[in-house]
Amino acid sequence: MKLYDSLQRKLRTFEPLNPPRVSIYGCGPTVYDYAHIGNFRAFLVYDLLHRQLRAKGNEVEFVVNFTDVDDKTIDGAASAGRTLSQHTGRFVDAFLADAATLGFLPVSQHPRATGFIPAMVDFVERLVERGHAYAADDGSVYYAVASFADYGKLSGKGGEDLARRSRIDGGEYAKNDPRDFALWKAAQPDDLKVGAVWDSPWGPGRPGWHLECSVMAGSLLGDTIDIHVGGEDLLFPHHENEIAQSEGLTGLPLARFWVHVRHLKVEDRKMSKSLGNFHTVRELVEEGHDPAAIRWVLISAHYRSELNFTLDGLSDATDAVQRLLDFRRRVTETPEDAGADPCLAAPARSHLEAFGDAMDRDLNVPRALASLWGLVRDVNAALDRAHGGVCREDRDAVLDALEGMDRVLGVLELAAGSRTVDDEEERGIAAMVEARTRARAERDFATADRLRAELETRGVVLEDTPSGTRWKRVRAGG
């Protein structure tokens, strides 16, 4: 398996430090509001990486944090008149619900930054002891960037030019160098108001954002992890600062691979509420869009390419998912013919192998999808030529290949779940189909059309065949 390492700026062969264990830390959401589809584009890449590594037989220990204390969460809690935990807790729950909606594999742990405050205080104390940090007169503690010779090795930023352009973080007079960043922030009125204050040797305060991920990653996965993932916006300064903190303390590489996901645009523009192109998962689902189609769109481009999300693209994804479901159904329902010559097993395995090779090549989803559609094309053509049916070996090989691909993509399983009906609903649909059949026999086409339209609003489409009317659920009903 090869992954593009942002630190070395090249594709590198990935091998775990302690096989078969693979340790991964992913920067998770800042839980001050609902995560939007741009956030979920990155998180779905996490999920693809997780699935591909598991499909290859690795034991994946995957940690994705919740940033539940920082400027945004404190401002949000103060504005809403809630405590910090009350405010962030609702968005933690919302994120987990949205992740389930999109079919994420469960990760090993979802730590919250507020659960690691003592470890953060200890971490800062040791950085001060080693000369990498200093306390300011106001009770804040800053990382001394000049003390870490390799600062800037990930992003290429860190020299005097950065010093000239550096944003002043909390006070011009507290820092020794404008590049220095806060490890511990002295308590402010809003911090006290929402309960975001903890005791420390430097007085009451709270951790800096960059510190939080270093401590959670090290506490849960060890000093050196296999892979650190995040959005490209985190490369600098967040990940650069994580490296300085962690490696300044341990002298060991924080991560062996750094993987960064490109941004998402919506309708060729930056996503913005003011532009009306700001989407959350829950809003799209409430509007009637299929979770499997949302997932399909967000994983469809290579993670190092910018993805343009459009509603037309979402509609095309809905059709693509349905096409795959119809394909699986056709294969499953094709009669078994013990006398048929095997002709599909070898190409099915070949397409599955090509799919795996594509995913091993830096999670190349577009090339993997080409293998998937190649399987659909070749099997459909063979079934069109088949007389009577296929042998069990062929059918099992095709279904196994499709399942193997979806074990990584996570689309068909999700789509099937949104299209299932319980016994009561199935009886109701069957009754409406029967009523429509009677109406057509009586030439009451207005009633037949009304029943078809009503079923369509419930996500059910009808197919009239010489042997009768068949129905299928193509999406969750409205």
Can you characterise this structure?
The protein is an alpha/beta fold. It folds into 3 domains: 2-261, HUPs (Rossmann fold); 273-419, Isoleucyl-tRNA Synthetase, Domain 1 (Orthogonal Bundle), CATH 1.10.730.10; 423-473, no CATH class. Helix content is 49%, strand content 14%. It has 17 helices and 14 strands. It has helices at residues 37-55, 71-80, 84-101, 117-129, 160-165, 189-194, 209-221, 235-250, 281-286, 291-299, 311-333, 345-360, 365-385, 392-409, 412-419, 423-441, 445-457; strands at residues 2-5, 10-13, 21-26, 59-64, 133-135, 141-143, 181-186, 205-207, 225-231, 255-261, 264-266, 307-309, 460-465, 468-473. It has a 4-stranded parallel β-sheet, sandwiched between helices. Strands 5-6-7-8 form a 4-stranded antiparallel β-sheet. A two-stranded antiparallel ribbon has the order 1-2. It is elongated and about 90 Å long. The two termini are 43 Å apart. Residues 163-171 have low confidence and may be disordered.
Topology:
Elements: E1 2-5, E2 10-13, E3 21-26, H1 37-55, E4 59-64, H2 71-80, H3 84-101, H4 117-129, E5 133-135, E6 141-143, H5 160-165, E7 181-186, H6 189-194, E8 205-207, H7 209-221, E9 225-231, H8 235-250, E10 255-261, E11 264-266, H9 281-286, H10 291-299, E12 307-309, H11 311-333, H12 345-360, H13 365-385, H14 392-409, H15 412-419, H16 423-441, H17 445-457, E13 460-465, E14 468-473
Parallel strand pairs: 3-4, 3-9, 9-10, 11-12
Antiparallel strand pairs: 1-2, 5-6, 6-7, 7-8, 13-14
